[in-house]
Amino acid sequence: KSCQKPVDKYIEYDPVIILINAVLCKAQAYRHILFNTKINIHGKLCVFCLLCEAYLRWLQLQDSSQNTDPDDLIRYAKEWDFYRMFGIASLEQTSFFIGIFITLWWMAPEMLKRKSDFILLLKALLLSTYGKLLLIPAVIWEHDYTPLCLAFIKVFVLISNSQAIRVTLNLNRILPWFAIFFGLIFENGVVCLFQKMGWDV
């Protein structure tokens, strides 16, 4: 009833075409994936995306403190910096999602009445972070434009998040972007709070 059509046209489409349309952020493709398929990879995808982000941060941290001594490199590989970066990435993503949920619950409480609504929205948000997988080729094909590529990946993930919120709750375009904006503010606020507490975040 949310798409006002007699049938989902993507039922007859090849999965590759559905994936291409999802990458193009088409609302119908998102609706098909969220409501008419039985994808159960939300948690695995989330952990894998966080590992990619943690690896990128760890690599940048390693580049900033390069040492030619091989013994030091071995010692560095054994340190817990990678796990710390994973924890920071997890904290930031959790804060971002909490900011989105608070905003949507405050602006449109009728949309999130039941626990199942929260779970569906969380699954949609986790699936829509698949753009972070593009961090892998950005790291492999390292070049002078890497910061620009990372900025484009961030924008792509935010657009995907917006479409996921819009399709899941059947909203217009403005409220999802407002929720994402508040989620970013909440995420940066939590990071600043931990930095003021003396944590190396």
From TrEMBL:
Keyword flag Transport: yes
Compartments where found: Endoplasmic reticulum membrane
Membrane topology: Multi-pass membrane protein
Statement: the UniProt record of this protein carries the keyword Membrane: yes
GO (cellular component) term, any one: endoplasmic reticulum membrane
Example GO BP: sterol metabolic process
Chief place where the protein resides: endoplasmic reticulum
Domain of life: Eukaryota
A Pfam cross-reference name: Arv1
Swiss-Prot/TrEMBL keywords: Endoplasmic reticulum, Lipid metabolism, Lipid transport, Membrane, Transmembrane, Transmembrane helix, Transport
Transmembrane segments: 85-106, 118-141, 148-168, 174-194
Free-text function comment from the UniProt entry: Mediator of sterol homeostasis involved in sterol uptake, trafficking and distribution into membranes.
PANTHER family: ARV1 (PTHR14467), PROTEIN ARV1 (PTHR14467:SF0)
Family in the record: Belongs to the ARV1 family.
Protein's recorded name: Protein ARV
Organism whose genome encodes this protein: Lanius ludovicianus
Gene name linked to the record: Arv1
